[in-house]
């Protein structure tokens, strides 16, 4: 197959060229290439397939289970131009081994996923077995692990230090959810005692300072552990980014930052709306000033990746459980389907970032940091033919009824897009056309990931 005449977004350039695909891979990029089957991409952008390294399919949060499984969630991802995910696993039983949840998630994904997928391990406690298993799992393609600084299985400072030291030794990545657990819980109690249980108090309970303190602490522990590879998930505030940048200014080379579209595009005024519970997620939406400040960090290259934290619950359910008390509302929002179009429209079409910077944020850097590059995340000879053809000649208004996520709302209802996905290829196969998934069920493959490349810019 040949994709003809598009604006091909390669790692460092945008060139008008053809792409020859043989089997599942890109065989050549050049001019005047031909083959029996042709897709005409004249006037359109030809982008690497998106990689979302922060999703929560099937996530069990105790009071509810995230509604997208590996079928509906990956169909939605595909329709939105994402051709690979790396999922963050839910907690297993107390004391379980590090491979326990990985085994369970293989079962969740098998027979369902339509795009390629990998798993981050989740560290619930730290002991010799867990630290030993971090090495074993490299052979099984799991080369990153998540630690939480809050919630029931939070890891204490000594544990974080031990995990980071081990990660440095092995060359694997540690992803951290940074929030100060003690302060967040104290504030939740205070607010509930005073009857302050409306959605807006969700944001009040988890202030920016709690995020920034935890980022500062984790990054300094990484320094003490010898500049261990540390990936800060869902940075939501300027104050949090200041902690990231301080660590870098002091010479740390292995601190990486992720943000999400919701922190670039939405703000805490949404909690004042009648449907405010839609936006209950952690970290919460922040004061509006943070949107522009985080965009500045994206533009400057201080934020390496944009992921979604996709974790959908029906508004109906959020209201049933949380209408009298935000602390009872399951935390999370959908987003996997709209990351690529929103970031292209708000980033590239609005002139904030180049098409190359967009590809770096949403595909190339995630691939590098999580051991998928150059198989994924880039349009290059020999890479998987995971490709999105993006039409910029037409606009589109986001409405929930056109999306495929298994949830009853989108946080981006009514947002205008100035681009539209034409078609999506995964390993050389057209799987999305006219906003419909047309591939087989269960065609997705488990990604045995390599070690991270720490040169993401
Ligand atoms: Zn998450």
Q: In a nutshell, what does this entry contain?
A:
The protein is an alpha/beta fold.
List the helices and strands and how they pair.
Elements: E1 2-9, E2 14-22, E3 25-30, E4 38-40, E5 45-48, E6 50-55, H1 72-79, E7 82-88, H2 100-109, E8 116-122, H3 128-136, E9 144-148, H4 157-170, E10 173-177, H5 181-193, H6 200-205, H7 208-224, E11 230-232, H8 238-249, E12 255-259, H9 261-265, H10 289-300, E13 305-306, H11 315-322, H12 339-349, H13 355-369, E14 387-391, E15 396-397, E16 416-417, E17 420-426, E18 429-433, E19 436-437
Parallel strand pairs: 1-4, 1-5, 6-7, 7-8, 8-9, 9-10, 10-11, 11-12, 12-13
Antiparallel strand pairs: 1-2, 2-3, 5-14, 14-17, 15-16, 17-18, 18-19
Helix pairs in contact: 4-7, 7-8
This protein binds zinc ion.
Describe the structure.
The chain has 457 residues and is of the alpha/beta class. The chain has one domain: TIM Barrel. The chain is 31% helix and 20% strand. The protein has helices at residues 72-79, 100-109, 128-136, 157-170, 181-193, 200-205, 208-224, 238-249, 261-265, 289-300, 315-322, 339-349, 355-369; strands at 2-9, 14-22, 25-30, 38-40, 45-48, 50-55, 82-88, 116-122, 144-148, 173-177, 230-232, 255-259, 305-306, 387-391, 396-397, 416-417, 420-426, 429-433, 436-437. Helix 3 links the parallel strand 8 (116-122) and strand 9 (144-148). Helix 7 (208-224) packs parallel to helix 8 (238-249). The protein is globular and about 70 Å long. The mean pLDDT is 97. The chain binds zinc ion. Zinc ion is lined by residues 54, 56, 88, 309.
């Amino acid at each position: 197959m040949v994709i003809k005449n598009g604006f091909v977004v390669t790692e460092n350039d945008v060139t008008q060229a053809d792409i020859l695909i043989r089997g599942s891979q890109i065989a050549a990029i050049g001019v005047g290439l031909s083959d029996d089957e042709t897709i005409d991409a004249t006037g359109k952008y030809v982008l690497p397939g998106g990689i979302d390294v922060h999703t929560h399919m099937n996530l069990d949060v105790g009071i509810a289970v995230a509604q997208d499984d590996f079928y509906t969630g990956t169909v939605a991802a595909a329709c939105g131009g994402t051709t690979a995910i790396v999922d963050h696993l839910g907690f297993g039983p107390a004391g379980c081994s590090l491979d326990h949840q990985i085994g369970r998630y293989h079962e969740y994904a098998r027979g369902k996923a339509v795009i390629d997928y990998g798993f981050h391990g989740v560290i619930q406690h730290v002991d010799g077995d867990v630290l030993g298993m971090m090495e074993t799992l490299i052979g099984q393609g799991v080369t990153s692990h998540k630690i939480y600084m809050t919630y029931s299985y939070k890891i204490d400072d000594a544990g974080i230090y031990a995990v980071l030291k081990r990660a440095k030794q092995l060359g694997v990545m540690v992803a951290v959810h940074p929030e100060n657990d003690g302060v967040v819980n104290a504030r939740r109690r205070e607010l509930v005692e005073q009857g302050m249980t409306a959605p807006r108090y969700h944001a009040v309970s988890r202030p920016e300072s709690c995020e920034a303190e935890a980022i500062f602490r984790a990054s300094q522990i990484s320094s003490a552990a010898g500049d261990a590879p540390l990936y800060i998930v869902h940075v939501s505030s300027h104050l949090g980014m200041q902690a990231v940048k301080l660590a870098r200014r002091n010479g740390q080379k292995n601190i990486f930052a992720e943000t999400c579209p919701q922190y670039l595009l939405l703000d805490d005024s949404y909690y004042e709306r009648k449907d405010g519970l839609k936006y209950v997620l952690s970290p919460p939406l922040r004061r509006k000033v943070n949107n522009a400040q985080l965009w500045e960090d994206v533009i400057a290259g201080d934020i390496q990746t944009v992921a979604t934290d996709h974790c959908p619950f029906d508004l109906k359910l959020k209201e049933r459980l949380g209408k009298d008390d935000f602390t009872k509302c399951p935390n999370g929002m959908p987003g996997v389907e709209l990351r690529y179009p929103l970031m292209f429209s708000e980033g590239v079409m609005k002139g904030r970032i180049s098409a190359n910077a967009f590809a770096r944020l949403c595909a190339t850097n995630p691939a590098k940091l999580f051991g998928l590059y150059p198989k994924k995340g880039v349009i290059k000879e020999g890479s998987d033919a995971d490709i999105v053809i993006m039409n910029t000649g037409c606009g589109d208004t986001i409405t929930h009824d056109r999306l495929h996520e298994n949830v009853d709302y989108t946080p981006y209802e009514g947002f205008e897009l100035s681009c539209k996905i034409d078609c999506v290829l995964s390993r050389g196969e057209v799987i999305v056309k006219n906003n419909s998934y047309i591939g087989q069920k269960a065609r997705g493959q488990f990604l045995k990931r390599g070690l991270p490349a720490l040169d993401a810019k």
